[in-house]
Design a protein that fits this description.
- Helix 2 packs antiparallel against helix 3.
- Helix content is 22%, strand content 38%.
- With 296 residues, the chain is of the alpha+beta class.
- The chain has four helices and 15 strands.
- The strands form three sheets. Strands 5, 6, 7, 8, 9 and 11 form a six-stranded antiparallel beta sheet that branches. Strands 10-15-14-13-12 form a five-stranded mixed beta sheet, with no helix packed on it.
- The relative contact order is 0.09.
- Among the domains are: 30 residues; 54 residues.
Length: 296
């Protein structure tokens, strides 16, 4: 073998060694999803979609809950696989996958109904903690009175439940917190939307924070705000980035019904809002306005 050929061979081996070293460094240095072969997730995503579609659409209650168990097993495998945090799951349209604007949090939540029309919710919160991804599984606990729920914080084991459909970060006492908005189809008569706060640290997830002022000098702010309303109605609760407000429908009893019964509450065509204040507080604005174009 000539010296020139051998020299080229050594150079080629050197380049290959450098390339494999680069791959190893990427593997152990918090690589992004684009650094992984995302196709390895496709079989698992197909399995998750099959189970999630079945737990939603099956006519048999026992089968729905069995599919739900299978989905949770597949989801656990997915979230615990390295690189999955950056993998989108748009094909699974019966489960809500929602990211925070800062890309540090992903909430995965879903609902399942029994034959009586009562809903139960499930979920997991993924948190990008430096180079690690922490997974915090949620366990729903219903039964508390609305007034009590608006005045306490709750661990992930006593979550109020629902589909988390919007997440917004803000600062409170120099820490990042997350405003979350959820929808829950409680039963055949009542739906619920919730405005809540999620705090995440190494110890887990805590829901609720005394930041929702009912009026300017409120010394006892709500920890969260719950809106119960008729199952036959549609209610708006969302953050409007242009107005920098949390806008929501005002609820009143339907014509001919007395107040005090959540199942008869419907939007009256006007809106209220929560406005950001100093120190991470949110001030309620009543009679915010009529005929707001919320599509802008």
């Amino acid at each position: 073998m000539s010296k020139r050929i051998r020299k080229n061979s050594i150079a080629k081996e050197y380049r290959q060694a450098v390339f494999f070293l680069f791959l190893l460094l990427m593997t152990f240095s918090g690589a992004k999803a684009s650094d992984y072969d995302t196709s390895v997730f496709n079989p698992l995503l197909r399995k998750m979609k099959l189970y999630s579609d079945s737990l939603r659409n099956s006519y048999n209650q026992k089968s729905r809950f069995l599919y739900n168990d299978s989905f949770k097993i597949a989801l656990r495998e997915f979230v615990e696989t390295q690189g999955s945090f950056e993998v989108d799951a748009d094909s699974i349209n019966t489960v809500m996958f929602k990211r925070s604007p800062d890309k540090k949090v992903r909430a995965i939540t879903w609902l399942i109904a029994d034959n009586a029309g009562n809903y139960q919710s499930f979920g997991v919160i993924q948190y990008k903690n430096k180079k690690e991804i922490d997974n915090f599984w949620l366990s729903e606990k219903l039964g508390r009175e609305k007034k009590e729920l608006e005045n306490i914080d709750l661990p992930s084991s006593e979550w109020t439940g629902g589909l988390i459909y919007q997440i917004l970060e803000f600062k409170y006492k120099r820490k990042i917190r997350y405003l979350i908005m959820t929808f829950h189809g409680l039963d055949t008569k009542i739906n619920r939307k919730t405005l809540d706060v999620m705090t995440i640290d190494d110890d887990g997830v805590v829901f609720g924070l005394p930041v929702f002022l009912r009026y300017e000098d409120d010394q006892d702010p709500d920890y969260r705000v719950l809106f119960n309303y008729s199952d036959q109605a549609t209610m708006t609760l969302r953050y409007d980035a242009e107005m920098k407000l949390i806008v929501f429908d005002k609820l009143v009893p339907a014509a001919g019904f007395i107040s005090g019964l959540d199942e008869f509450l419907i939007p009256d065509g006007t809106y209220s809002a929560y406005k950001p204040r100093r120190k991470g507080k949110w001030l309620r604005l009543e009679d915010f306005g009529k005929y707001i174009d919320l599509e802008k």
